[in-house]
Design a protein that fits this description.
Chains A, B: GO terms for molecular function: beta-N-acetylglucosaminidase activity. The structure is a homodimer. Chain A has about 600 residues and is of the alpha/beta class. Chain A has 19 helices and 20 strands. In chain A, helix 5 (about 225-235) packs parallel to helix 7. The two termini of chain A are about 25 Å apart.
């Protein structure tokens, strides 16, 4: 270690001939873990900070998620000048140019935020970043987009740092930049930015869908809080933001063709998303390497906003327990022809604003008791020669889904993938209603539900959101009664890290597109969205990118660093442990390496 | 209701002859609950906002905690001009003058924050606030200080609003001002501040100790986050901030006499509290009606910072399970004479900085196995003719506590009340070691622990912090292993509201000074301190101020308003329910009035 640091230390000594170190502690790497030690006269020349130690101390360095290919991170650390960073090789194609420009701005800003404001004027080496993209014009992140990259850093003979990122397209390039960012750290002993001068990493994700679902209907989430969420996603290489934008509780989305939906549906005239807000969020998502997928959940989960139509039945029905799963109830009446015209307009507005490559049609928690209690619906069913059994209500639901899908396709191409939540409709006996070429099924039951293997056996692509690990709203107090909420207890990051796709799917399976953590916001709004999501969603990020065979214990030191990284983005990630456990790695766990 | 609103509406119509209302919804009070209704041509003249409805709709209005004496809140609402508020009757005594000045500034600032920035230039009625204090010179909040007040508001014939607050002293006056503040709301339909023009309230707390304990050692909490905590405490009339400032993990406090403690003990050179920080926090606390009580926990819970002394044994001992309850271990060696000199210096620095009226000496979780494993301690005990039984270690502990108390008294008067946590020392057989005139016992076991009745039967004053309701860190993931943390599950606000002192104490008892919620920060830092504390600590606030006989259901509507109030202070209080449930009160609970 001492030998490898020589160059860095010489360089440091050159610049700091008089001033001492900040503080009395240094860190030493012992068997892959960083340990706090006192600075003594003997050690002051070789003393390194915790952030430097973490970079050098294990093969995955401080990277999150862990790269899947070659990882070579040299142990010679040099000082970087954040005011002397250049980016070249950016394509001339306008849209892609602007994407890379955004990613660059983000990169530079993050480095600046690492340093205390009073320490921003010092020098260091120039960093030149060159992008080599095979398809610089690609701007849409689809299920087929290559997200891998190769990153190399070398120091030139005249002391500049040359970073090269080779990738198929912007999304891969951005991931390389994110990795480079994680390798530049603030050294608080010498108060400067440092990085290894010799890096070679190849990397690509194990799964194409690394998602986060956020509900903005039960409670409104501000545009700033959503953009912060996208930034934190970028930092963990999560790539799919599933926006559950409406529900029975409120309708904050602006459908230009149906202005009443927002006027009557928003909680207040300020708790809305204008088309400009959506454009801002979608653009920020792209810069962060994140596709933004809108969900319009139907035929259940509708209510507020539709007051001036006759398309919704059971709205605010009491006691709600008889008509839906939570207040307020509300479900579309599939027998109303006008409904499908309205849906086509709404889909059109959503497609125009989001320009999505995938669409989410919801489809969860349809309550047959609601339809069964509505005389006109029952009469319509009788006129079709149907009864009132579960099978008959499935026919009604199928009628809705078939007609709604036709209208979606009128506003998109017919091969846009459509996602539906698991439900009675996706159970074995009724599955035939859904084409496996058209639909991707998002699983929200438990990780051991036999429905999962049935879906896979029948050739359906799936996204896994098993609530027993990936519902981030669980574990807080009840809200329709006392006690704790329905999916308690709280799901810790360790549980999420151990929730591997191959385990849930009964073996590695290409039909598993990935996973998605979900934050339902009955008991969350902008004040707590950060602490609920982070750093737990980052744990899932590594599971999906790196497909680690190790358990949470092996990932713990890096997880603590990743949490600090998210904090540095201005996102209020929850603390996982006393800072002491990060300063003395592996001294806290009950059977830790330094607790024996 | 319509009749009572006439004056307000006339006044509104006078100012708003052209402009319409903002939004399409109004609220109506039905059987004590506010319900959202559409604005129609018939109702637009009498339409009121949710905040106005809540003020008028029930006898406790939107007040939190509910006043304990007379409550008369008139139903004529008038517009207030926040730029025309005067305060008079402020005493000339310098220190008390500055306290009231601080409370006034806080009051004015909060009103301004209620309004959107673009709507701050409009008119309204002048509000003149007069204080009548019997003892304006009182500046220390002791266990005997009167905190009650009488608040009246009348409208003069020339249209000014006269508010009078009668109280014994600043602390009572400040509480009256807080109540007045809660009765001034922002009407988002007409975009103005409004209040009732006729108020008469008398009020005083049921318990003198309404506390919050915050740990700043396991993780550092910024000065700003602590000041925000004090502001939110003020808003719920909580009055005791118990600062668990040090522990074995870190020592961020600046003891001027023992500078090494902070230099070696702080996590980083920035994660410290300077004497100026402490002064700032203590002064802010006073303005908020909150006494700031320092805890120096000993003889266990010490470690980092004491490296350059030989007073701590078992420090960082491994496996920690054998020597303490969580890493890192560390316990004072009571046999070292130098220790007591150091303690006297430290106590002196704390007394100088905090000027407290009560001191907390900690005393929890002493691990006899640690002392028993230290050869020099065992030898010392043998020289006293003692063995190594529990009783002998109790003697050693008693020796420590006796000597430490002597040194504390050297720095204070001997009648400063001292608090100790429950422990082996406070159990029946050993209780004789502690004088009930000197010590107050803080109970942190379960609410059904027989130790509680034993302490009360023996005449000890107690503060209740039963962990099965009042530990706000419970319910998250483990940190020394996986699974969830030791005191899971999460304690919801309903549980806290039902945790009444008289129930825990087996009947109303004057020896119960009050309760204290505790936030241990192994898994919390500045990023999440707000969401963990609020609004749950406010639920306890009402329990202690109002001693309500009702359950949480009756308090729910006001609790949701109080949560919004804390958000308006810039504090990230957790959301409890969908905003829908606040807009349609009593429609969400499973057996709610509007869910039948």
């Amino acid at each position: 270690m001492k030998h490898q640091l020589t160059k860095y230390l010489l360089f440091v000594l050159l610049l700091k001939t008089i001033s001492g170190l900040t503080g009395v502690w240094r860190w030493e790497c012992e068997e892959g873990y960083c340990q706090k030690k006192e600075i003594t006269p003997d050690t002051q020349d070789t003393a390194i900070s915790l952030s430097a130690c973490r970079l050098l101390c294990s093969d995955a360095s401080a990277l999150w998620p862990k790269p899947t290919g070659e990882i070579h991170v040299g142990t010679t650390l040099v000082k970087v000048n954040p005011n002397s960073i250049s980016h070249s090789g950016v394509g001339s194609e306008k849209r892609s140019h602007s994407l890379i420009g955004g990613a660059m701005t983000r990169f530079n800003k993050q480095l600046n935020e690492l340093r205390p404001k009073t320490k921003r004027a010092d020098g260091g080496k120039t960093l030149e970043i060159t992008y080599i993209l095979s398809d610089p014009g690609l701007t849409d992140l689809t299920l087929e987009t290559e997200e891998g990259y190769a990153l190399t850093v070398v120091e030139t003979s005249d002391g500049r740092l040359n970073a090269t990122i080779v990738a198929d397209n912007f999304y891969g390039g951005r991931n390389g930049l994110e990795t480079l960012n994680q390798l530049i750290v603030y050294d608080d002993l010498r108060e400067e930015l440092i990085m290894p001068n010799d890096i070679s990493i190849t990397d690509k994700p194990a799964y194409p869908w690394r998602g986060l679902a956020l509900d903005t209907s039960r409670n409104y989430i501000t545009v700033d809080a959503i953009k912060n969420t996208l930034s934190a996603m970028a930092s963990s290489k999560l790539n799919s933001f599933h926006w559950h934008i409406t529900d029975s509780h409120s309708f904050p989305f602006t459908a230009q063709s149906l202005p009443d939906l927002r006027e009557y549906g928003a909680y207040t005239p300020k708790k809305i998303y204008t088309p400009e807000d959506v454009a801002d969020i979608v653009a920020h998502g792209r810069e962060c390497g994140v596709r933004v997928i809108p969900e319009f959940d139907a035929p259940a989960h509708v209510g507020e906003g539709w007051q001036n139509t006759d398309y919704v039945v059971c709205f605010k029905a009491a006691p709600w327990q008889d008509y839906c799963v939570e207040p307020p109830c509300g479900q579309f009446d599939p027998t109303k022809d006008g409904l499908y015209d309205a849906l086509e307009s709404l889909y059109g507005d959503m497609i125009k604003q989001f320009q999505p490559t995938i669409f989410h049609m919801g489809g969860d928690e349809v309550h047959f008791g609601c339809w069964n209690s509505t005389a006109s619906i029952v009469e319509w069913m009788q006129n079709q020669g149907w009864g009132r059994s579960e099978e008959d209500f499935i026919k009604l639901w199928d009628h809705f889904q078939t007609e709604a899908l036709k209208r979606l396709y009128k506003q998109t191409s017919s091969n846009i993938p459509v996602i539906l939540w698991t439900s009675t409709l996706t159970e074995g006996e009724y599955l035939e209603h859904l084409s496996k070429d058209q639909y991707i099924i998002q699983i929200w039951t438990t990780g051991s539900d036999p429905q999962i293997s049935n879906l896979l056996a029948n050739g359906y692509r799936v996204i896994i959101s098993n609530y027993d690990a990936l519902y981030l709203d669980c574990g807080f107090s009840g809200w329709v009664t006392d006690g704790n909420n329905w999916c308690s207890p709280y799901k810790g990051w360790q549980k999420i890290y151990e929730n591997k796709p191959a385990t849930v799917a009964g073996g590695k399976n290409d039909l598993v597109l990935g996973m998605e953590a979900a934050l339902w916001t009955e008991q969350v709004d902008s004040a707590s969205v950060d602490t609920r999501l982070w750093p737990r969603a980052a744990a899932m990020g590594e599971v999906l990118w790196s497909e680690p065979s190790n358990g949470w214990r092996e990932a713990e030191s890096r997880m603590l660093v990743q949490r600090e990284r998210i904090i540095n983005l201005g996102v209020n990630a929850d603390a996982l442990e006393p800072e002491w456990c990060r300063q003395y790695e592996e001294s806290c766990p009950t059977n830790g390496k330094f607790n024996k």
